[in-house]
Amino acid sequence: MKALVKIMPKKGVLDPQGKAIEKSLNQLGFSQINSVIQGKLIEIEIDSINENDAQKIVEDASKQLLANLVIEDYEITITKDE
Amino acid sequence: MKALVKIMPKKGVLDPQGKAIEKSLNQLGFSQINSVIQGKLIEIEIDSINENDAQKIVEDASKQLLANLVIEDYEITITKDE
Amino acid sequence: MEISVIVFPGSNCDRDVAVSLKQVFKRNPKMVWHKEQTLPKSDLIVLPGGFSYGDYLRCGSMAANSPIMSEIIKCGKSGTFIIGICNGFQILTETNLLPGTLIRNKDLSFICKNLPLKVENSKSRFTHKYSANEIIEIPVAHNEGNYFADQKTINNIEDKDLVAFRYCNKDGIVNDETNPNGSKNNIAGIINEQGNILGMMPHPERASDKVAGLIDGEKFFISILESIQ
Amino acid sequence: MIKITKELIDEHGINDKEYSFILESLDREPTITELGIFSAMWSEHCSYKSSKIWLKKLPTSNDKVIQGPGENAGVIDLGDGDAAVFKMESHNHPSYIEPYQGAATGVGGIMRDVFTMGARPVALLNSLRFGDINHSKTKHLLTGVVSGIGGYGNCMGVPTVGGEVEFNACYNDNILVNAMCVGIAKINKIFYSKASGIGNSVVYVGSKTGRDGIHGATMASAEFDDSSDEKRPTVQVGDPFAEKLLLEACLELMKEDIIIAIQDMGAAGLTSSAVEMASKGKVGIDLNLDKLPCRETLMTAYEMMLSESQERMLMIIEPEKEKEAKSVFDKWGLDFATIGVLTDTNHIVVKHESEKKADIPLNILESGAPSYKRPYKIVTNPEVNQSYLLKSDKKLIDILKKLISSPNLCSRRWVWEQYDHMVMNDTILRPGGDSAIIRIHGTNKALAVCSDSTPRYCASDPTEGGKQAVAESWRNITSVGAKPIAITDCMNFGNPEKEEIMGQFAGVINGMIEACEILDYPVVSGNVSLYNETNGKGINPTPVIGGVGLLESLDHFSTPNFKRTNDNIIILGDTKGYLCQSVFAYEIFSDSQGLPPKVDLILEKKTGDLVRNLVTNVKIDTVHDISDGGLLIALTEMSISGEIGFQLNIDKSNLNYSFLFGEDQGRYIISVEDKNLNDAIEYIKKSNISYLNIGKTNGKKIKIDRDNEIDIEELRDLYENWFKNYLKSN
Ligand SMILES: Nc1ncnc2c1ncn2[C@@H]1O[C@H](COP(=O)(O)OP(=O)(O)O)[C@@H](O)[C@H]1O
Ligand SMILES: [Mg+2]
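Above: the input entities. Below: the structure tokens describing the complete assembly.
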């Protein structure tokens, strides 16, 4: 199975990277771009035949390590390998 | 409009972060986790009423700034604001 | 008196801090590998600076999950002195031994320079050798030293006088201009409520050697020594 | 089997003559893997075919040199059983393609060269050259390279303590990124790359092998199978975390008597390390690639042999000791694999999937390695009379303001504050001085290190420029009171197949030889980067010199910042006021005609010896050499860093451009307390060096004369803020 963990800064948390990108894009002339937030995307391969199991494993991994819940929210998507 | 730009290391390019996370997860007992790749997710708000326009703008931004095409691939998803 | 310096893969200020500790405590700290399950008896535990696990994912995140950390968390809760410097501070927030977290510097670049700091709390067990509001000079060297916590946490830290050091200028002015990295309220170092754990981004061990130029960090180590004795 | 076509041979950069030599010596057609091996070993980069005959002439020894060129790095004796191990290397092309990763892996590569010899790296330096500041790529390259260098060095915990940054349009399409590393080892614990002991194991340690940076044969490798996308040679990505573990693991294992020989896998990866180790030991080597730790699937023998994946080493150890060695690498979480054995065949034999992929007698790789006597012509600029450079009505103070805020003279603080220059706690003098001073840990001794080049001098007169580069390095070491011992170099030039370019190379080398000999400052390691050329336009000849000196005691050293008011400011060495090729000529007149200032090496030596004498015996603590920009710039740097002004008190006839901005060589400024003045003058007179007392330090202003004075703070803003403003601007 494959899991995608999308980790984004919580609302209200300073996001210096996102801000910097936004500024650079505006300077480059992308005036239509209003706001940029930068997060992480983590792609995981799991040995698991069962989506529920996979979800649980990745959920645990996210809480324990992948995301910092003080500043980040996460979202998991499980897909079966093609 | 909202755009999500998913930026991942190109296939074959070393992803030291992913490797380190993978090792760390295995040490934490997540033995079912086989491979981890870390990428970036960039969420952009664009002033544009038209999906095609938005796509084009973000495409340009990705090429010019967001992704490092020498080592990264990117993928854009446009969604209308709810 | 026993000191343990924890060595994570990628720690790189472990030797430096051991040298400063030895000068003040007159004895060699034990260097403890992160994979150990048990910690030698310690009166002081030091989490040194560096790039544990390459600073990959988030600074300190993987070190916080190292085998030795469960012992350290136990010790911390039962009152053992713990200091975390730079990467060590990041590890302490990742383990929740200290509140908040350290994010990327506001200008996105690594900063290595001497900075003036204001000793905000000169009564703590880590800082009592300094006088109230003393301005000291200590180097920083970090990419993620921008202290962040939600407003409630910040209020609590401020109300309970848990800020040890703040970034300022030579004249002690604390404001946005004298904030090198975007840190909330210019916070450079904090203490936990129990008063036995301190985390700071600046490197006191780089300011404890006359030949190398700075000595303002020495009082920090002496404060700890006297508090333990 | 892949058919060896003419096209394939061409793509591997092997010419007809070389190919017939291969056919003749093997007595058969080479396999594709063999072709790859020949191509890598005979590339300019590995074989030094254009430069070899010239490099051989460089002086490479003195009573302090333990190991000269030919090993992974040079080694010098520091006394008390300590040695310094150092080298410089270029990573120009990769840094242009991907500035962050290119620069980062350059730093990683040079560190491996040093710790593979058993030394702990204690200092990093770099020498950077970018195109015109207005060129569209310059900002991107500058920020990427600087953060890449910092990213790698900072994570390793090795301080980056010095370097140089220059902007010039000649580097628009060929930036230069040269990195230098200095390490400290115990003399009796230095490790070499010469393999020995038939039957001993060939052990691979470090990170896994991927398809990184497989050169040259882009097309050829695409033909291997259909998934050509996957086969695409990729840019190397650095993993400083893995390298930090590799460093600690290697140094830990080196405490025991286990490693017989060791070499990092640098350019041409496994191929060059295996071939070089075996050739040096006059043994054969069998490699079984089935055992090679790979991070990608379906890698071919060709790819494994040529991959330039980073953070890997090859070692020779006795089979009985494998277990003990492995436990160290296990502890650090690194791959450890026995991939071969030393044989008595004098062949390199490569097996993969039970097939013999290569079998080459090592002596062919060596004896057949091309060496060219390329034709050359040393061209110098015509001499011009500098009088036209004296005609301007610009005020001295305005010129000073312009120069101090010009891209090539302004403060580099923006750069080095992104580098951890203090980690290891032995940085006694930080970047910003003439040399950095690094204490030898746990002692009162120190190293002085610097890196220098003045390409515009080399372009106008290669020989004089070569001399000057070495002399300036020697001068920068001397300025802190240290004794210069030896150098490493990085020779960056254009296309050597052109006579004038080869002439630049030859001229520079000739100049270097003279300077190294007279100054007793030999070359112990180095690197050559040729073909820095785009659309037929080459870079300025850029021989970067990395200098290392020894400070016997930290009780006496000198730094450039003024320390007290009312000190006497004295120039040592003769000021003739030579302006051609100066920064002044370039910035104020956009002029680059004429010849560079001459270097008088005999006088250079005497003046430098005097300076060191003054530092040790008269306790002079303030010294700065006069280099780019001339006297007034050097004085201004001393004022800004010391936050103390000065008042010039010189003959009116000297208040002119040539006196203040001329770049005559071999000069230093010292500042002397009144109480030491007589002593100092006595020493100076005894050594027969000309000197001039030009004024006193005082106040917060720079005062040239009544019409020309300015607050230091105003100059500081100009000096310190150029980079920030430049990067902010669009
Ligand atoms: N890329 C760099 N990295 C670190 N330090 C640098 C770099 N470029 C310049 N510096 C430092 O800035 C100072 C001035 O450099 P430079 O003008 O080249 O000095 P000099 O004329 O004495 O050779 C030196 O201390 C040098 O080490
Ligand atoms: Mg100098």
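Note for the figure: The radius of gyration of chain B is 16 Å.
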